[in-house]
Amino acid sequence: xxxxxxxxxxxxxxxGIGYGVAETLLKMGYKVAITSRSLxxxxxxxxxxxxxxxxxxxxxxxxxxxSQQKAVKxxxxxxxxxDVLVANAGVGNFGSVxxxxxxxxxxxxxTNLNGLFYSVKAxxxxxxxxxxxxxxxxxxxxTNYFAGGAAYNASKFAVTGFSQAIMLDLRDKxxxxxxxxxxSVATHxxxxxxxxxxxxxxxxxxxxxxxxxxxxxxxxxxPSKIEVRPARPPKK
Length: 236
What we know:
Strands 3-2-1-4-5-6-7 form a seven-stranded parallel sheet, with helices on both faces. The protein has helices at 16-27, 39-49, 65-79, 102-130, 150-170, 204-216, and strands spanning 7-10, 31-36, 55-59, 84-87, 133-137, 176-182, 225-228. It is 43% helix and 15% strand. The relative contact order is 0.14.
């Protein structure tokens, strides 16, 4: 199947998982637009990614539906179609509920959950035209709760449920939906700076490879929810 004219939109694609997915899709022949709240970050990442294919950096904030609509329109104006949405943008705010601020709660829900809805809502009509694919990035925290995870668990449990519900909504309309639920990933998430100490973790390119595998799968088959863990985490 040729991917020469296929396009993908990746939210939060300037670094981490989103960047790793963008690299994979570009190497597969997709044209890829990545978004970031910072235009300079998006454009700098797109410039690096362009070594692998045609990449476009866009300023967009998933917390705003209008911002997501604008990003989709920019992609369609440039390339004419949208085939894949990778809804990756997310934040992590952690702390015991008695210490968690209202602002951190709102930021987590607005980014991880509302941002996912806005991204899908802005993209879905274009994806129906191409019988495209939505891939959401949830987390193992979307089924496994932990102390200090009130906001993050709530958002990722919701992401998982939302993703599975829209999978049922859209599969009869030709749009496939999968959610990937990674465990520990070596990214910049929550202020982390990846280093050699993160070598045991899932790498961003591993999630990129998984996304590529989903897109290459026979269209009669739909892996709707995929849990991914490090193969050999350190013993506690």
